[in-house]
Amino acid sequence: MSDYLAIIVAVVVIALAAVGGLFLQFRSRGRGAPTLPPPEAPPVITEPEAPPREEAEEGGVTTTVPPPARPVEVIAVPPAVEIPPPSAGRMVRLRARLARSQNALGRGLLELLSRDRLDDDVWDEIEETLITADVGVGPTRVMVDELRTKVKVLGSRTPEEVRALLREQLLTQVGADMDRTLHVTSHGTRPAVVLVVGVNGTGKTTTTGKLARALIGDGRKVVLGAADTFRAAAADQLQTWGERVGAEVVRKDEGADPASVAFDAVARGIDDKADVVIVDTAGRLHTKTGLMDELGKVKRVIEKKAMVDEVLLVLDATTGQNGMRQARVFAEVVNITGIALTKLDGTAKGGIVISVQRELGVPVKLAGLGEGPDDLAPFDPEVFVDAILGDHQNG
Which of 116, 196, 268, 328 has the most CB atoms less than 10 A away? Predict the structure, then answer.
C-alpha cells in the first residue's frame, strides 16, 4: 500500500512541476519577451500631398484658402490659316467708303458746274476746289480749260450732261488708259519679285502683308522677306501677316544686312517653288545718299538670283504734298513701277492720285481703303471717279 502511495505522490509531483514550468514560460512572454518583427512590406510610392489648406481670418470672417493649384502645361496652338477672298472686285465692294470721303469734292464740283451762269468767279471756285483736293495746279488748269470749252459748245446743260463732262475729264486726268497690271506672274522656276519701298509711317509693312493676302486669295504661293531690319517690330508684324495666311517669312536678327535677307527670301522662293516673293525694305530717310546705297544694294543682290519685276512705292494719301516730296526722293533712287496709295478713304484729297501719277509718270496700282486685312484693292479708275461723283449711273 505504501508503494502505491509513493507512486501516486511521485506522479502528482511530476505533473505539478510540468504545469509550473508551462505557467512560468507563458508569464515570461507576457512580460515583454522579444518577438520577431513581421516581414517588411514593400514600399508604397505616392504622389506628394498638397499642402494643407490654410485658414485666413479677415474682418472676423474665416475663409478657407485652397492649396495652390498644380501648374498646367499650356500647349501652343498655331493660328488657323485663313483663306482670303480674291482681289478681283475688291474696289467695287469698298466703293462706299471711298464715296463717303470724296463726297464733298464731287458734290461741290457738280453744284458749281450746274449753275445757270458760269462766270469767271465760278470757274475760279471750280479751280480752287480741284487744287484743294490735291489734283495739282497743272492738271487743274487743263481740266478747267477743257470744261470751259465743252460747256460753251453745249450751251444749256442738264445735270446728267454736267456729270458726264466732269466724269470724262476726271477719267482723263486719273489716266483710265494707264497699264495698272501688277507684275506678279512667275517665270518658269523663278518667282516674280516685288520690292516694296517707302518711308516708315505710310503703312509699308501693312501693305506688304495685305498684298500677300490678296495674292494668296488669288491662288498664288507667296514668300515674304522682312528686309526692314532696322525695326524689329516690322519683322514681327510681317511674321504675323504671314502666319495668318500660310506665307513663309524669311527674317534675321535686328540690324542684319537687308540685302542678305532679300537674297535669302528669293532663294527660299525658288526652293519652295513660290509664285511671288515680296520684300519689305527699310524706310529710313536719313540722307538720300544712304537710302540710295541701301536700296541699290538690295536690288543688285536680288538680281543675282532673279529679276525685280515690280517696285511699289507706298504713299500715305493723307500726307498730301509732303507725300509728293517723298515720292520724288524714291523716284530718284529706284526705278518705281507702281504706287500703292494707302488711307485713300481717310482723306477728302483724292486728287493726290492725279498729281502723284503726273509727277512720277507711273500708275497707282493699289489703293488702301480701310484698316481691315482685305481693304487693299487693285486701283480701278472708273470706280474711283464714280465714287467721287456719287452713286448716280454713268452718264
Answer: 196
The per-residue DSSP string of 340-388 comes to EEE-GGG-S-TTHHHHHHHHHSS-EEEEE-SSSTT-EEE--HHHHHHHH
Residue 311 pairs in a beta bridge with 195
- Cα(389)–Cα(166) distance, integer angstroms: 8
Q: Provide the whole-model pTM.
A: 0.77
The one-letter amino acid code at 148 reads R
Phi and psi at residue 358, to the nearest 5°: -65, -40
CA angle in degrees (0–180, nearest 5) for 170-176-181: 145
Of the chain, the end-to-end C-alpha distance in Å amounts to: 163
Q: Any idea which residue has 546705297 for its cell? A: 293
Distant-in-sequence, close-in-space partners of 176: CB < 8 Å, separation ≥ 6: 381, 382
- pLDDT tens digits for range 271-294: 999 999 999 998 766 456 677 788
DSSP characters over 257-274: -HHHHHHHHHHHHHHTT-
Identify any residues that bridge with 310 across adjacent strands, giving them in sequence order: 194
Please list the residues that pair with 278 across neighbouring strands: 194, 224
